[in-house]
Amino acid sequence: MRVVIAGAGSVGRSIARELLGNGHQVLLIDKDADDVQASRVPEASWLLADACELAALEEARLEESDVCVAATGDDKANLVLSLLAKTEFGVPRTVARVNNPKNEWMFDESWGVDVAVSTPRLMTALIEEAVSIGDLVRIFEFQQGRASMVEITLPEGSPFAGRRVGDVDWPTDTVLVAIIREERPLAPTPDDAIEAGDELLFITTTEQEDRLQDLVSPGERHHATSEG
């Protein structure tokens, strides 16, 4: 997979390293010469340019990318890049960083954004998750399909502690995508047992969040989402 990342600051470089480690091709774009230092991520390709300019995106061969990540510290730039990526270059998937939560309402399909990731929201969610075992925490929403990624840390009293994944009748449109146990991610199989203290990551719909909360952790519904 070829991924173009605009914004070579700490966030962009961190994403690039993860993707490169998973065997993907990465091009980093930034207009700040101080950030464009190939030695920081030597396995990536680099381009010193303004990612909001068509000429720069043409030079980056954006139309050949599978994913475009708008990871700059400027929300306006991230929106413009996402829109250009979709409308001018037909990029299949766009991921945009939201710096100011007040701007989050704009990061949707009308601006070419497939997935919006709010760093402040994610930090808030992680803080809430740390003090709210048993509560559902919404990590982020997918702008298309009205789906979201949510997390629930299984409390000691959950009826599912010790049960097999395959024996649980999850709500409609809900998928258990990962179990985090002792800080290690596990890809769940039907034969895996769920243990108290496990962090369960689901993809679900907004309509099913309350039902999922009640199913996994009855009586614990405080809905510690990161909204607002």
UniProtKB/TrEMBL annotation:
Gene3D superfamilies, sorted: NAD(P)-binding Rossmann-like Domain (3.40.50.720), Regulator of K+ conductance, C-terminal domain (3.30.70.1450)
The entry's keywords: Ion transport, NAD, Potassium, Potassium transport, Transport
Keyword Cell membrane: no
Domain RCK N-terminal: 1-117
RCK C-terminal domain ranges (all copies): 137-218
Translocase is among the record's keywords: no
Source domain of life: Bacteria
Protein's name according to its UniProt entry: Trk system potassium uptake protein TrkA
